[in-house]
Write a sequence for this structure.
């Protein structure tokens, strides 16, 4: 299979935080943010695989700063690493106060997707080609996260 460059599947998505997206404190609801993160990641996964991709896991969602009503959110999704039928997508969330122009890194998330065929069966996907030092760093770190994911998963299976 041919490699596909990281840049070919990157996603940049912008959202405006509206009143319906917030809690009583005027902060973005975590579930709404997770929805947007999942959408951005799914688009990146499908761009890379050129197949339907389903969410297999969300490893980590780190909340660094609250996101307020009226702020603009930039979600940047990128394929970090491809395994046989799965791939890890990293999503970085930047918030911008449109009145001050101040931008903050608010969240980071790591999701795993599985590419499936028309019958819902996992399929082998294109390897990824790193293009930058940042791509290479994310590629290496994705393997460490995968190993930890598999370790945790084996604990869940033992508990059943």
């Amino acid at each position: 299979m041919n490699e596909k460059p990281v840049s070919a599947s990157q996603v940049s998505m912008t959202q405006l935080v509206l009143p319906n997206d917030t809690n009583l404190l005027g902060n973005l609801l975590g579930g709404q943010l997770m929805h947007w993160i999942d959408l951005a990641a799914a688009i990146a996964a499908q761009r890379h695989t050129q197949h339907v991709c389903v969410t297999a896991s969300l490893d980590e969602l780190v909340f660094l700063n609250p996101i307020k009503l009226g702020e603009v959110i930039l979600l940047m999704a990128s394929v970090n690493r491809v395994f046989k039928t799965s791939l890890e997508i990293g999503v970085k969330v930047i918030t911008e106060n449109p009145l001050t122009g101040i931008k903050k890194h608010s969240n980071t998330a790591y999701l795993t997707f599985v590419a499936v065929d028309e019958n819902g069966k996992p399929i082998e996907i294109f390897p990824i080609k790193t293009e930058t030092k940042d791509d290479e760093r994310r590629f290496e770190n994705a393997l460490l996260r995968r190993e930890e994911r598999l370790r945790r998963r084996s604990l869940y299976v033992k508990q059943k």
Notes: The beta strands are 4-5, 11-16, 52-63, 72-82, 86-96, 103-116, 128-129. The mean pLDDT is 94.
